[in-house]
Amino acid sequence: MTTIEKARLLDQQDTLGKYADEFYKKEGQIYLDGNSLGLLSKRAEQSVLTLLDSWRQYGIDGWTSGEHPWFYLSEKLGEYCAPLVGAKSKEVVLTGSTTTNLHQLLATFFKPTEKRNKILADELNFPSDLYAVASQIALHNLPESHMKLVKSEDGQTISTEAIIEAMTDDVAVAVLPAVLYRSGQVLDLQAITKAAHERGIIIGFDLCHSIGSIPHQLHEIGADFAFWCNYKHLNGGPGSVAGLFVHEKHFGTAPGLAGWFGSAKEKQFDLETTISAAPDAGAYQIGTPHILSLAPIEGALSIFAEAGIDAVREKSLALTEYMMECIMHEIPNTFTFGNPLDETRGGHLFLVHDEAARICKALKENGVVPDFRAPNGIRLAPVALYNSFEEVWHAVQILKDIVFNKTYENHENKRDIIA
User: Fold this and answer.
1) 58 phi and psi angles, rounded to 5 deg
2) Does residue 384 fall inside a structural domain?
3) How far is CA 6 from the centre of its chain?
4) Which residues carry this modification: N6-(pyridoxal phosphate)lysine (predicted)?
5) Quick one: which of 132, 221, 319, 357 is 20 to 30 A from 389 by CA?
6) Whether residue 232 lies in the annotated active site
7) pLDDT value of position 412
């Protein structure tokens, strides 16, 4: 049953529905692009104002004064974020950007030897990760072939077996996504980590499309490192400061890229010519933290602390399940699902259609905000904290009208500058 009555019943039973009022949602719009940029919450807005006020009140003394002293903010927010990735508080710090953090982690852990001198990634990974991997390989004067890519059989997903098969004796480090950014497939991090360590491989994960959407247990499974952005499912704001995890077993490993904010706090302003690195994940910071880009994350994390990531995951699966049911019932034989149909999917669906770019433009014209991925993919992310089942139902009705009446033909079938 995919009626609006069912959607309303599901909304009545939804324990997370109350959080939707905490987000700024445009009237007449159904926002389904939270896997690219989450919406602004009132708490995130308030935490920005709080940090601005500390600048106003204290000037330079804001580094050590006020509700959130800036000097300790990256570590403090790392502690708040740790439960979302299943880490100990000292294993997480919010710093840098996704790609600079990956560069830092590879500079730290990729130490090629005569035998082990390749980095394992996958061909479906977000290109920025692959660019970073390629440049780290080049910095070691190694040929491009030392980036080894796991192949996909269907162009949408990667099998655990294929990943493990690619873990040959020449691989030093593996970098894989927790959730594939196009199809939304959730990888089996525990099995993959276990296999890597059995083969002497250091392994890290990109959590950009999983943090705030699915639970993680990075410490328990023994992942060596991880990195992520905070502006998608975590709703930390455009260009917000990113995060990284380093397992405590690596504490004391010198950062590959040293900078003064990686110093032990009590030693940082000694300004010695040799760094005294922090004894935890804080060591992997480089420069002065971007306080105003950290600010909204504090408010955003407070919502997750209340709601709980397990409840978020439960509703997310229910929303995407209901959306698939509606699409299959209302628009049969129109789209191919590129995402997994079972619970190995993340927080978004991936619809494949030859007219995907046009359909996305038509959706936006009709008040539904999707995400296009070239050449033929539509990502739709009903977000647990601010989307409802009724919104899902209405979005599918709009999609049905666009497809049946071919109103997408009013648009050019190519992406805009930003897709």
Assistant:
1) -110, -15
2) yes
3) 31
4) 232
5) 357
6) yes
7) 85
Specify binding-site residues.
Answer: 98-99, 126-129, 206, 209, 231, 260, 288
| Domain boundary pick from 279, 306, 333 | 306
Do 174 and 228 fall within a single domain? yes
Could you say which of 231, 245, 386, 389 is catalytic? 231
CATH of the domain at 63: 3.40.640.10
Buried b / exposed e over 184-210, threshold 16 CB at 10 Å, is bbbbebeebbebbeeeebbbbbbbbbb
Cα end-to-end span (Å), the chain:
33
294 and 320, same structural domain?
A: no
**3 state DSSP class of 353:** coil
56 and 124 co-located in one domain: yes
Residue that finishes a domain, picked among 277, 306, 335:
306
Provide φ and ψ at 281, rounded to 5°: -60, -20
pLDDT for residue 215 is more than 90: yes
- Confidence band (pLDDT; 50, 70, 90) for 253? very high
Binding residues for pyridoxal 5'-phosphate are: 98-99, 126-129, 206, 209, 231, 260, 288
| pLDDT tens for each residue of 378-390 | 999 999 999 999 9
Domain count, the chain: 2
User: Exactly one of 14, 33, 122, 206 is catalytic; which is it?
Assistant: 206
Between β-strands 368-369 and 371-373, what pairing exists: parallel, antiparallel or unpaired?
unpaired
pLDDT for the residue 1: 74
- Residue 231: active-site member: yes
**Predicted local distance difference test score (pLDDT) of residue 414:** 81
pTM of the model: 0.96
- What integer pLDDT is reported at residue 206 of this predicted model? 98
Q: Is 36 among the domain residues? A: no
pLDDT at residue number 26: 97
Catalytic residue among 43, 182, 232, 313: 232
Measured CA to CA, the distance from residue 239 to residue 40 in angstroms comes to 13
**Mean pLDDT, rounded, for 99-124:** 98
206 is catalytic: yes
Please write the tens of the pLDDT for every residue from 115-173. 999 999 999 999 999 999 999 999 999 999 999 999 999 999 999 999 999 999 999 99
Q: Which structural domain range is residue 371 located in? A: 4-31+308-410
Catalytic residue among 80, 90, 379, 408: 379
Q: Residue 400 and residue 334: Cα distance in Å, rounded?
A: 10
- Mind listing the pLDDT tens digit for each residue in 254-272? 999 999 999 999 999 998 9
